[in-house]
Amino acid sequence: MRTSLLLILLITALSCKQEKQLAMVTQGAVYEKYLETAKPGTDSKHFRLWNDKIKPDSMQLTSLGIAASYYGSYFQNTGDISFLKQSEQALKKAVSIAAVGKAGYERSLARTYISQHNFPEALRLAELAYKRGSGLSQSRNLLFDVHMELGNYELAEEYLDSIKDMSSFDYLIRLSKWNDHLGDLDSAIRFMELATKRAETARNRDLMIWSYTNLADFYGHAGRIADAYAHYLKALKIDPQNAYAKKGIAWIVFSYEKRPEEALRILERVEQNFNSPDIHLLKAEIYEYQNNEYARSKALKVYKELASQPEYGIMYHKSNILFRLYEENDTEGALKLAREEVENRPTPETYSLLAYTEFKRGNLDIALQIADEHVNGKTGEPEVLLQLAEIYKAAGRTAIVSDLRDELLSAIFELGPLSEAKIRQL
User: Fold this and answer.
1) CATH class entry, domain 60-134
2) DSSP readout, 168-181?
3) How many other C-beta atoms lie within 10 A of the C-beta of residue 242?
4) Which distant-in-sequence residues (6+ apart) come within 8 Å of 75 by Cβ?
5) Are 317 and 341 in contact (CB under 8 A)?
6) Is the domain defined by 316-426 classed in CATH 3.40.50.2000?
7) Does the 164-240 domain belong in CATH 1.25.40.10?
8) What is the distance between the alpha carbons of residues 415 and 413, in angstroms, rounded to a whole number?
9) d(Cα 402, Cα 44) in Å, to the nearest integer?
10) What's the pLDDT tens digit per position in 37-60?
11) Domain limits of the chain?
């Protein structure tokens, strides 16, 4: 009997060890080399050549376009918002003086506004570019993107149909996004995989990086964590400085492998070369998981200082709404921002923030009305579903909450470890 008991204990221990090993998908020895990269350059002889030609009264259209492109890439590489604003200024000047090729500059400026979450202005420029009749396919691509951001899904579908071409990278990535919007993640992944193959065949460096990181995100949503990790590594192999891929690996290490110390180490390395408010929000979340209130408060303070810079405009409205609700108990301030978000982009996601803010203000009836009319059944985003479940639980709608709870339990990786206890209490 004693031997049998020891055998059972040994088998159990080995089984637990094997499960722990199976949970580990990352290899520090592999991704470590990508954490040692030098600070990204924000200057070059070629950039200075074109940038120096730009004067307050400059009519150097080519110089403006090329300099704007450099500024945009510097923003992507460093997270420094000032570069994005400089790109905007150069493109605004180009739009104002261009006699030929104006539509191209309008599209570029519209994409800069998309990065800043200024979607109404992006739509205005996209429509201007479309009316000019130059580069119609690119304008249709852009109009699909903007209408998706604005929640104008019927119009977005019309533009998607107008660019249909299964051999086109541009069409495939938008078809993937459309299927993700519909809640068909398997199809979204399939079309993104096809688009990735197109980028690889063309050997287009930028498109390959973009495809790998987006495909990695989709794999993560689908619970295919090893595939997600592999594709973040693929992006880093091409661009060792890619901060987005490194943050993706840090999230896997934290949310899936439950190794907060290592996740923080990765983020601190990223932060040496790339700094944006969202990094400090993520660090605060990890510190909360560690019950380190001092470090959490410090990270949130840095987040607030960064996100409050005027250059960011409304880019962090969503995070600021939740920050005001949870950290500052400023429900009036949160409501003001939530209403601005709905006005700027009336999507199920922004309406969810408005409903949740009203819920936190004690206005359950108002929250329910907004949720029923604008949120429920219109999106499968886990963060939105969690907010919806909290509202419906308070209203006693147990059947809906039970369904949402089951769906949310499968999205814990995406929502993060802190969400699990909240979901199980629904």
Assistant:
1) mainly alpha
2) -HHHHHHHHHHHHH
3) 23
4) 81, 83, 84, 87, 115
5) yes
6) no
7) yes
8) 6
9) 57
10) 777 766 555 555 445 555 554 456
11) 60-134, 164-240, 241-309, 316-426
